[in-house]
Write a structure and sequence with these properties.
Order of helices and strands: EEEEEE
Strand order of the largest sheet: 2-3-4-5
GO molecular function: alpha-L-fucosidase activity
Number of helices: 0
Largest sheet: 4 strands, antiparallel
Low-confidence stretches: none
Radius of gyration: 15 Å
Helix content: under 10%
Protein name: Glycosyl hydrolase family 95 N-terminal domain-containing protein
Strand content: over 45%
Shape: globular
InterPro entries: GH95_N_dom
Organism: Aegilops tauschii subsp. strangulata (Goatgrass)
Pfam families: Glyco_hyd_65N_2
Length: about 90
């Protein structure tokens, strides 16, 4: 098997209590390889920005909220490929 054309796998972002959300919006831009998601849980507005770069061989996600300390999640990756995961800023 060649890894050149294999899918990365499944990335799961588990946010626990984010079951009752409102104002969900998702934007996809194929030219810039970006996805933006916004939604509210109670008084907190959450934002997720996903982007990728083939030349840099990276997929990145920025998760933020309008309330300090509101972001808490578990990230997991299930893949058959060799890979490395790095957290650059745990805050």
């Amino acid at each position: 098997l060649s890894e050149s054309y294999q899918p990365l796998g499944d990335i799961d972002l588990a946010f626990g209590e984010h079951i009752k959300y409102t104002n969900y919006k998702r934007y996809l831009d194929l030219e810039s390889a970006t996805v933006n998601v916004t939604y509210s849980v109670g008084e907190v507005l959450y934002s997720r920005e996903h982007f990728s770069s083939n030349p840099h061989q990276v997929i990145a996600t920025k998760i933020s909220a309008n309330k300090p300390g509101a972001v808490s999640c578990t990230v997991s990756l299930a893949t058959p490929l060799d890979h490395r995961i790095r957290v650059t800023d745990a805050n």
